[in-house]
């Protein structure tokens, strides 16, 4: 495997949808409030957010390697859990991975500085919060109960809020309620991917929520939150008087399949395989519906 291919594997670009969707959504909510989008600023916001996301992916691999989590993980499900394994397979060095994370964070920070001069300092603070929380999450917060919530908050609400601010030069908490389904689904993507990693996480001292609760209880909570998301979207469509949001219900069969699989096979990660892509597909599909609803 060449160096370029190794880096492409390390970046895990297919997961960038969890960043791209809320950034576009935030800009569209601003458009619904103020009537226009500054497309160059949207492009910069997207690029900055993507850089921070890529830095987060890489720094998470780095700290998981340092803590030995991925080294002892034999139940991982490719490509959804267990990290990229580029360092473990000697395709990239530990120093290269750390340097890559730093470079992407710096690139994201530079875009944040430029946008701060153009639209206001708050966008810079949001970027700093995203970078610092990504590092802290990877270093030790993933071992505490705030890890899953922090990831959802960053990749759902903060991304949308920052994008809204870039367009509107102000904060509006409508964005929080609108982007909440994306935040919850992002947390659930992380949550379900912790099932195959549970044993390795426990042995390396990484106390994720699945480790703390056990797979059975964690499967119940996953199911409850998934059902809540659909109830919430119905309520949101009524509050926003925007019934296009109800198109999200087309993903309900996917949710039911995922719930069935996780409740039945919570202790057999390979048999609950469908849950991993289905949770990502639900995030993507519901995200697209949210975008269409605010076009």
Explained architecture:
This protein is mainly α and 295 residues long. The protein has one domain. Helices cover 72% and strands 0% of the residues. It has twelve helices and no strands.
Q: Layout of SSEs?
A:
Blueprint: H1 3-11, H2 17-34, H3 39-67, H4 94-119, H5 122-139, H6 147-168, H7 174-193, H8 198-203, H9 209-213, H10 215-239, H11 252-265, H12 275-293
Helix pairs in contact: 2-3, 2-6, 2-7, 2-12, 3-4, 3-5, 3-6, 4-5, 5-6, 6-7, 7-10, 7-12, 10-11, 11-12
Query: Could you tell me the radius of gyration in angstroms?
Result: 19 Å
Described by the principal axes of the CA atoms, the overall outline is globular
State the end-to-end distance. Answer: 42 Å
Mean pLDDT: 88
Number of strands: 0
> Helix share of residues?
over 70%
**H/E element order:** HHHHHHHHHHHH
Task: Give the domain tally.
Answer: 1
Structural class: mainly alpha
Relative strand content: under 5%
Low-confidence stretches: none
Biggest β-sheet strands, sense, barrel? none
- Helix tally equals 12
What are the salient characteristics of this protein?
295 residues, mainly alpha, 12 helices
